[in-house]
Design goal:
It is built from twelve helices and eight strands. The chain folds into two domains: 2-17 and 36-57 and 252-345, no CATH class; 61-181 and 232-241, Alpha-Beta Plaits (2-Layer Sandwich), CATH 3.30.70. It has helices at 24-34, 36-56, 77-98, 101-111, 115-119, 123-132, 161-205, 211-225, 254-279, 286-292, 309-335, 339-342, and strands at residues 2-7, 10-15, 61-70, 134-138, 141-143, 146-148, 151-158, 236-241. Residues 1-22 have low confidence and may be disordered. Strands 4-7-3-8 form a four-stranded antiparallel sheet. A two-stranded antiparallel ribbon has the order 1-2.
Length: 350
Amino acid sequence: MTTARREHGETLVTRTAPNGDVAEPTRALAVLQRHAWLAGAVFLVVFAGAGTIAMSLPDIYRATATVLVEHPGTTEGIGKSLIAGELETRLQTIGQEVLSQARLMALMASFNLYPELREWGAHATAVERLRRDIQVKLVRAELAGRPTTVAFGITFRARDPETVARVANVLAAFYIEENAKMLVRQASAARLTRLNQELMQMQEVYTPRHPDVIRLKAEIGALERSPKATAAVGEEFRILDPAVTAQSAVAPRRLLFVVFGLGLGLGVAAVAVLVADRLDGSFHTVEELRAFSRLPVLVTIPHIGAAGRSRHRIWLTASIAIGVVLVVLASHHIASGNDQLASLFSRGAP
Protein backbone atom coordinates (compact mmCIF):
# COMPACT_ATOMS: atom_id res chain seq x y z
CA MET A 1 0.00 0.00 0.00
CA THR A 2 1.21 3.50 -0.78
CA THR A 3 0.30 7.06 0.14
CA ALA A 4 0.80 10.33 -1.64
CA ARG A 5 0.72 14.00 -0.90
CA ARG A 6 0.53 17.19 -2.89
CA GLU A 7 3.13 19.90 -2.25
CA HIS A 8 3.85 23.00 -4.36
CA GLY A 9 1.74 21.74 -7.25
CA GLU A 10 3.53 18.36 -7.47
CA THR A 11 2.23 14.93 -6.46
CA LEU A 12 4.59 13.02 -4.17
CA VAL A 13 3.95 9.36 -3.46
CA THR A 14 5.25 7.72 -0.29
CA ARG A 15 5.02 4.31 1.33
CA THR A 16 2.29 3.66 3.91
CA ALA A 17 0.93 0.83 5.96
CA PRO A 18 -0.45 -2.20 4.07
CA ASN A 19 -3.99 -1.56 5.24
CA GLY A 20 -5.54 1.56 3.67
CA ASP A 21 -8.56 1.57 5.97
CA VAL A 22 -6.88 3.31 8.84
CA ALA A 23 -8.88 3.27 12.09
CA GLU A 24 -9.90 6.58 13.58
CA PRO A 25 -7.58 6.36 16.62
CA THR A 26 -4.66 5.60 14.28
CA ARG A 27 -5.60 8.51 12.04
CA ALA A 28 -5.91 10.85 15.05
CA LEU A 29 -2.47 9.74 16.24
CA ALA A 30 -1.04 10.36 12.79
CA VAL A 31 -2.55 13.84 12.71
CA LEU A 32 -1.08 14.57 16.14
CA GLN A 33 2.34 13.33 15.06
CA ARG A 34 2.29 15.57 11.99
CA HIS A 35 1.50 18.63 14.11
CA ALA A 36 3.31 17.63 17.32
CA TRP A 37 5.39 20.83 17.39
CA LEU A 38 2.28 22.98 17.02
CA ALA A 39 0.39 21.07 19.72
CA GLY A 40 3.34 21.22 22.11
CA ALA A 41 3.94 24.92 21.52
CA VAL A 42 0.28 25.92 22.00
CA PHE A 43 -0.09 23.79 25.14
CA LEU A 44 3.14 25.13 26.62
CA VAL A 45 2.18 28.75 26.02
CA VAL A 46 -1.34 28.38 27.48
CA PHE A 47 -0.25 26.30 30.46
CA ALA A 48 2.68 28.62 31.20
CA GLY A 49 0.29 31.57 31.26
CA ALA A 50 -2.18 29.81 33.55
CA GLY A 51 0.58 28.59 35.86
CA THR A 52 2.12 32.06 36.09
CA ILE A 53 -1.26 33.56 36.95
CA ALA A 54 -1.80 30.94 39.67
CA MET A 55 1.57 31.67 41.25
CA SER A 56 1.38 35.48 40.90
CA LEU A 57 -2.06 36.05 42.39
CA PRO A 58 -2.08 37.63 45.88
CA ASP A 59 -3.36 35.77 48.93
CA ILE A 60 -6.81 36.90 50.06
CA TYR A 61 -7.89 36.59 53.71
CA ARG A 62 -11.35 36.88 55.23
CA ALA A 63 -12.66 37.60 58.73
CA THR A 64 -16.18 37.80 60.16
CA ALA A 65 -17.54 39.62 63.20
CA THR A 66 -20.85 38.25 64.53
CA VAL A 67 -23.35 40.71 65.98
CA LEU A 68 -26.24 39.57 68.18
CA VAL A 69 -29.63 41.29 68.07
CA GLU A 70 -31.31 41.53 71.46
CA HIS A 71 -34.90 42.58 71.96
CA PRO A 72 -36.17 43.36 75.46
CA GLY A 73 -38.63 40.71 76.62
CA THR A 74 -38.57 38.69 73.38
CA THR A 75 -36.27 35.71 73.21
CA GLU A 76 -38.29 32.76 71.97
CA GLY A 77 -41.22 31.83 69.80
CA ILE A 78 -42.97 34.02 67.28
CA GLY A 79 -41.40 37.19 68.66
CA LYS A 80 -37.94 36.00 67.71
CA SER A 81 -39.13 35.06 64.23
CA LEU A 82 -40.54 38.53 63.76
CA ILE A 83 -37.22 40.07 64.81
CA ALA A 84 -35.33 37.91 62.33
CA GLY A 85 -37.80 38.80 59.59
CA GLU A 86 -37.44 42.53 60.20
CA LEU A 87 -33.68 42.41 60.68
CA GLU A 88 -32.78 42.44 56.99
CA THR A 89 -34.78 45.61 56.44
CA ARG A 90 -33.12 47.24 59.43
CA LEU A 91 -29.67 46.20 58.21
CA GLN A 92 -30.33 47.66 54.77
CA THR A 93 -31.38 50.95 56.33
CA ILE A 94 -28.33 51.08 58.58
CA GLY A 95 -26.09 49.97 55.70
CA GLN A 96 -26.99 53.07 53.70
CA GLU A 97 -25.24 55.14 56.35
CA VAL A 98 -22.43 52.73 57.24
CA LEU A 99 -21.53 52.10 53.58
CA SER A 100 -21.84 55.71 52.49
CA GLN A 101 -19.02 57.15 50.43
CA ALA A 102 -17.86 59.52 53.17
CA ARG A 103 -17.72 56.75 55.80
CA LEU A 104 -15.90 54.34 53.47
CA MET A 105 -13.39 56.96 52.35
CA ALA A 106 -12.52 57.59 56.00
CA LEU A 107 -12.23 53.84 56.59
CA MET A 108 -9.87 53.42 53.63
CA ALA A 109 -7.71 56.27 54.85
CA SER A 110 -7.53 54.82 58.38
CA PHE A 111 -6.42 51.35 57.26
CA ASN A 112 -4.67 52.31 54.00
CA LEU A 113 -6.96 50.14 51.89
CA TYR A 114 -6.52 49.97 48.11
CA PRO A 115 -3.59 52.42 48.02
CA GLU A 116 -2.96 51.81 44.32
CA LEU A 117 -6.48 52.93 43.40
CA ARG A 118 -6.39 55.97 45.63
CA GLU A 119 -2.96 56.99 44.30
CA TRP A 120 -4.36 56.94 40.77
CA GLY A 121 -7.23 59.15 41.89
CA ALA A 122 -9.82 56.41 41.32
CA HIS A 123 -11.63 57.11 44.61
CA ALA A 124 -15.06 56.12 43.29
CA THR A 125 -13.64 52.80 42.05
CA ALA A 126 -11.99 52.20 45.43
CA VAL A 127 -15.29 52.84 47.24
CA GLU A 128 -17.15 50.39 45.01
CA ARG A 129 -14.37 47.87 45.51
CA LEU A 130 -14.67 48.23 49.28
CA ARG A 131 -18.45 47.75 49.12
CA ARG A 132 -17.95 44.53 47.15
CA ASP A 133 -15.44 43.25 49.70
CA ILE A 134 -17.91 43.78 52.57
CA GLN A 135 -20.76 41.35 53.11
CA VAL A 136 -23.50 41.50 55.73
CA LYS A 137 -25.85 38.55 56.08
CA LEU A 138 -27.89 36.69 58.67
CA VAL A 139 -26.04 33.85 60.38
CA ARG A 140 -26.76 31.12 62.88
CA ALA A 141 -25.26 31.73 66.29
CA GLU A 142 -25.52 30.27 69.79
CA LEU A 143 -26.35 32.14 72.95
CA ALA A 144 -26.23 30.29 76.28
CA GLY A 145 -26.26 26.97 74.45
CA ARG A 146 -29.43 27.75 72.48
CA PRO A 147 -29.26 28.23 68.71
CA THR A 148 -30.57 31.55 67.50
CA THR A 149 -30.97 33.17 64.09
CA VAL A 150 -31.30 36.70 65.48
CA ALA A 151 -27.73 37.57 64.55
CA PHE A 152 -25.79 38.71 61.53
CA GLY A 153 -22.22 38.48 60.37
CA ILE A 154 -20.09 41.27 58.91
CA THR A 155 -17.41 39.82 56.65
CA PHE A 156 -14.50 41.62 55.06
CA ARG A 157 -11.78 40.34 52.76
CA ALA A 158 -8.40 41.79 51.78
CA ARG A 159 -4.73 40.84 51.50
CA ASP A 160 -3.50 41.47 55.05
CA PRO A 161 -5.05 39.13 57.67
CA GLU A 162 -4.62 41.52 60.61
CA THR A 163 -6.15 44.43 58.70
CA VAL A 164 -9.06 42.24 57.62
CA ALA A 165 -9.95 41.39 61.23
CA ARG A 166 -9.61 45.00 62.40
CA VAL A 167 -11.77 46.35 59.59
CA ALA A 168 -14.48 43.73 60.25
CA ASN A 169 -14.60 44.73 63.93
CA VAL A 170 -14.74 48.43 63.07
CA LEU A 171 -17.61 47.79 60.68
CA ALA A 172 -19.44 45.88 63.42
CA ALA A 173 -18.96 48.86 65.74
CA PHE A 174 -20.37 51.12 63.01
CA TYR A 175 -23.51 48.99 62.79
CA ILE A 176 -23.95 49.01 66.57
CA GLU A 177 -23.51 52.79 66.69
CA GLU A 178 -25.92 53.47 63.84
CA ASN A 179 -28.52 51.10 65.28
CA ALA A 180 -28.39 52.97 68.60
CA LYS A 181 -28.86 56.27 66.77
CA MET A 182 -31.81 54.82 64.86
CA LEU A 183 -33.45 53.66 68.09
CA VAL A 184 -33.02 57.15 69.56
CA ARG A 185 -34.59 58.74 66.50
CA GLN A 186 -37.50 56.31 66.54
CA ALA A 187 -38.11 56.78 70.25
CA SER A 188 -37.84 60.55 69.93
CA ALA A 189 -40.28 60.58 67.04
CA ALA A 190 -42.76 58.55 69.07
CA ARG A 191 -42.34 60.84 72.06
CA LEU A 192 -42.73 63.95 69.90
CA THR A 193 -45.97 62.56 68.51
CA ARG A 194 -47.28 61.98 72.02
CA LEU A 195 -46.22 65.42 73.28
CA ASN A 196 -47.75 67.16 70.26
CA GLN A 197 -51.02 65.35 70.91
CA GLU A 198 -50.95 66.49 74.53
CA LEU A 199 -50.18 70.05 73.43
CA MET A 200 -53.12 70.10 71.05
CA GLN A 201 -55.42 68.89 73.81
CA MET A 202 -54.16 71.54 76.25
CA GLN A 203 -54.47 74.32 73.69
CA GLU A 204 -58.15 73.51 73.35
CA VAL A 205 -58.58 74.22 77.08
CA TYR A 206 -55.80 76.64 78.10
CA THR A 207 -54.34 79.81 76.66
CA PRO A 208 -50.82 79.90 75.17
CA ARG A 209 -49.56 81.53 78.37
CA HIS A 210 -50.59 78.64 80.58
CA PRO A 211 -47.55 77.13 82.36
CA ASP A 212 -48.30 73.58 81.14
CA VAL A 213 -48.58 74.77 77.54
CA ILE A 214 -45.31 76.68 77.84
CA ARG A 215 -43.62 73.66 79.43
CA LEU A 216 -44.78 71.28 76.67
CA LYS A 217 -43.62 73.66 73.95
CA ALA A 218 -40.20 73.96 75.57
CA GLU A 219 -39.94 70.17 75.95
CA ILE A 220 -40.91 69.61 72.32
CA GLY A 221 -38.37 72.18 71.13
CA ALA A 222 -35.58 70.67 73.19
CA LEU A 223 -36.39 67.16 71.96
CA GLU A 224 -36.40 68.31 68.32
CA ARG A 225 -33.00 69.95 68.75
CA SER A 226 -31.36 67.07 70.63
CA PRO A 227 -33.01 63.63 70.85
CA LYS A 228 -32.46 61.98 74.22
CA ALA A 229 -30.57 58.67 74.23
CA THR A 230 -32.48 57.56 77.31
CA ALA A 231 -35.61 57.42 75.21
CA ALA A 232 -34.28 54.61 73.01
CA VAL A 233 -36.07 51.28 73.42
CA GLY A 234 -35.92 48.38 70.95
CA GLU A 235 -33.59 45.85 69.35
CA GLU A 236 -30.04 46.37 70.54
CA PHE A 237 -26.92 45.15 68.77
CA ARG A 238 -23.86 43.78 70.54
CA ILE A 239 -20.82 41.91 69.33
CA LEU A 240 -21.15 38.20 70.01
CA ASP A 241 -17.94 36.98 68.34
CA PRO A 242 -15.33 39.54 67.27
CA ALA A 243 -13.37 38.94 64.09
CA VAL A 244 -9.99 37.26 64.60
CA THR A 245 -6.90 37.17 62.42
CA ALA A 246 -7.21 34.48 59.75
CA GLN A 247 -4.52 31.80 59.76
CA SER A 248 -4.94 30.74 56.12
CA ALA A 249 -5.99 32.43 52.93
CA VAL A 250 -9.38 31.71 51.36
CA ALA A 251 -8.14 32.60 47.88
CA PRO A 252 -6.74 32.00 45.39
CA ARG A 253 -7.22 28.28 45.01
CA ARG A 254 -4.09 27.85 42.97
CA LEU A 255 -4.59 24.17 42.27
CA LEU A 256 -7.88 24.95 40.52
CA PHE A 257 -6.13 27.56 38.39
CA VAL A 258 -3.47 25.02 37.44
CA VAL A 259 -6.07 22.35 36.62
CA PHE A 260 -8.05 24.91 34.62
CA GLY A 261 -4.87 25.87 32.74
CA LEU A 262 -4.10 22.21 32.05
CA GLY A 263 -7.55 21.60 30.58
CA LEU A 264 -7.50 24.87 28.65
CA GLY A 265 -4.05 24.11 27.24
CA LEU A 266 -5.09 20.66 26.06
CA GLY A 267 -8.28 22.01 24.55
CA VAL A 268 -6.61 24.88 22.70
CA ALA A 269 -3.83 22.57 21.48
CA ALA A 270 -6.42 20.11 20.12
CA VAL A 271 -8.27 22.91 18.32
CA ALA A 272 -5.01 24.22 16.86
CA VAL A 273 -4.11 20.75 15.54
CA LEU A 274 -7.55 20.29 13.99
CA VAL A 275 -7.42 23.70 12.30
CA ALA A 276 -3.89 23.10 11.04
CA ASP A 277 -4.88 19.70 9.65
CA ARG A 278 -7.91 21.16 7.89
CA LEU A 279 -5.74 23.86 6.32
CA ASP A 280 -3.13 21.30 5.28
CA GLY A 281 -3.47 20.74 1.52
CA SER A 282 -1.23 17.67 1.33
CA PHE A 283 -2.44 14.09 0.85
CA HIS A 284 -1.72 11.49 3.51
CA THR A 285 -3.54 8.41 2.20
CA VAL A 286 -4.18 6.86 -1.19
CA GLU A 287 -7.90 7.31 -0.62
CA GLU A 288 -7.41 11.07 -0.21
CA LEU A 289 -5.44 11.20 -3.47
CA ARG A 290 -7.97 9.11 -5.39
CA ALA A 291 -10.80 11.30 -4.11
CA PHE A 292 -8.97 14.28 -5.59
CA SER A 293 -7.72 12.73 -8.85
CA ARG A 294 -8.39 9.65 -10.96
CA LEU A 295 -4.74 9.30 -11.93
CA PRO A 296 -3.33 5.92 -10.87
CA VAL A 297 -0.52 5.68 -8.33
CA LEU A 298 2.50 4.39 -10.21
CA VAL A 299 5.46 4.85 -7.89
CA THR A 300 6.11 5.11 -4.17
CA ILE A 301 9.14 6.83 -2.71
CA PRO A 302 10.36 7.16 0.87
CA HIS A 303 10.11 10.44 2.74
CA ILE A 304 12.99 12.78 1.85
CA GLY A 305 14.02 15.24 4.53
CA ALA A 306 14.13 18.84 3.38
CA ALA A 307 17.41 20.72 3.52
CA GLY A 308 17.74 23.15 6.38
CA ARG A 309 15.30 21.24 8.58
CA SER A 310 17.57 21.52 11.60
CA ARG A 311 17.84 25.27 11.15
CA HIS A 312 14.05 25.50 10.88
CA ARG A 313 13.64 23.63 14.14
CA ILE A 314 16.10 25.96 15.87
CA TRP A 315 14.14 29.00 14.74
CA LEU A 316 10.90 27.33 15.75
CA THR A 317 12.24 26.49 19.20
CA ALA A 318 13.50 30.03 19.68
CA SER A 319 10.12 31.47 18.62
CA ILE A 320 8.30 29.21 21.09
CA ALA A 321 10.68 30.20 23.89
CA ILE A 322 10.18 33.90 23.17
CA GLY A 323 6.40 33.38 23.08
CA VAL A 324 6.45 31.60 26.43
CA VAL A 325 8.51 34.38 28.01
CA LEU A 326 6.15 37.06 26.70
CA VAL A 327 3.10 35.15 27.95
CA VAL A 328 4.68 34.63 31.37
CA LEU A 329 5.51 38.34 31.68
CA ALA A 330 2.02 39.38 30.57
CA SER A 331 0.36 36.86 32.91
CA HIS A 332 2.42 38.05 35.86
CA HIS A 333 1.50 41.66 35.11
CA ILE A 334 -2.20 40.77 34.95
CA ALA A 335 -2.25 38.60 38.08
CA SER A 336 0.03 40.57 40.39
CA GLY A 337 -2.18 42.44 42.84
CA ASN A 338 -5.39 41.34 41.11
CA ASP A 339 -7.64 40.67 44.11
CA GLN A 340 -10.76 40.16 42.02
CA LEU A 341 -9.15 37.45 39.89
CA ALA A 342 -7.70 35.84 43.03
CA SER A 343 -11.21 35.58 44.49
CA LEU A 344 -12.61 33.88 41.38
CA PHE A 345 -12.27 30.44 42.96
CA SER A 346 -12.38 31.55 46.59
CA ARG A 347 -13.72 29.25 49.28
CA GLY A 348 -17.07 30.82 50.01
CA ALA A 349 -18.11 34.46 49.80
CA PRO A 350 -17.69 37.29 49.48
